Amino acid sequence: MQYTSNYNLKKPEGTDIVNIDDLNDNTDFLDQKLKEVENKADNAPPNSVNDAAIGSRTPDQSQAPASPGTGTLTQLISWLANRIKAITGKTNWWDAPPTTLQAAKTHMDAAAPHSGHETPSGAQAKADAALNSAKQYTDQEVGEVAQELAAHKAAAAPHSGHETPAGAQAKAEAAAGAVQAELDAHKEDNTPHCEAVTLYRKNKDENGIYTLLEWYRADETLFKTSELEGESPQYDTRRVKFYAEDGQTLVQEIVYTLTYDENGELISEVIQA
């Protein structure tokens, strides 16, 4: 008969007669020891499971969580690292974010957060000044044309190939019409003259990026939209549309090509030809 080195369990040799009592003794002893281990685990004192007992864990930030979110400790830590990386948009979850949620909230709530940002009243004043300048220029040009036409009509026709009164009148009207057309186009151009007073951010993607921005005028008509196109988080293009005063008629559309650096930061927006 041989015995184990730790718990002295009986190990019958090939020449020994098998005794059922030996097997039962071994079984009873193992049952008792297992129960003692179970009792110790159930009655572990507070703070006994510490960092030393748990050991170090290295999260895998490439693991994306899925419903219902149940997993091991390492899986849970990895999923949290993946979500932090997605929220910050950085290469690694431990990289410092470009801003904080509080800073972003403060920026959104500010009336004019950007350096040199134009206010609605300032934009309106500039639009009014541009309109007055255009009107003064038009009045001056039309007045000069009218004076020259009157003097020309009163002349006795001193020039070779002298214009007839009817022809001169037609040219003067054409010139005045061209100036008026320029003025009308200038007034209808929403870009320099109109300024939105309300901004809505819509269509948030899985990375927390709002892909659609809508600006509205004071009368609640749609003034402008800006929509990202492509794959998140590095969208390929941004499409900007301007609308007439009815909020439905498209008057201008501009498409920008977006470029990013190696860290995924947007570095340029170039207007497409």
In spatial order, strands of the major sheet run 3-4-5-6-7-8
Which structural class should the secondary elements be placed in? alpha+beta
Strand residue percentage: 15-25%
* Percent helix: 40-55%
Please trace the helix and strand order, writing H or E for each element: EEHHHHHHHEEEEEE
Number of helices: 7
Mean pLDDT: 86
Specify Rg, calculated over alpha carbons: 40 Å
Characterize the biggest β-sheet: 6 strands, antiparallel
Shape verdict:
rod-shaped
Ranges with pLDDT <50 over ≥5 residues?
none
Number of domains: 4
Q: Distance N terminus to C terminus?
A: 94 Å
Counted beta strands: 8
Descriptive account of the structure:
The protein is built from 7 helices and 8 strands, in the order ββαααααααββββββ. The chain has 273 residues and is an alpha+beta fold. It has 4 domains: 2-42; 57-103, no CATH class; 120-193; 196-271. The longest helix is centred in the middle third of the chain and has 35 residues, at 120-154. It has helices at 20-42, 51-54, 73-88, 101-109, 120-154, 165-188, 190-193; strands spanning 2-3, 10-11, 198-204, 210-216, 222-229, 237-243, 250-260, 266-271.
Task: Give a concise summary.
The chain has 273 residues and is α+β, with helices and mostly antiparallel strands. Helices cover 42% and strands 18% of the residues.
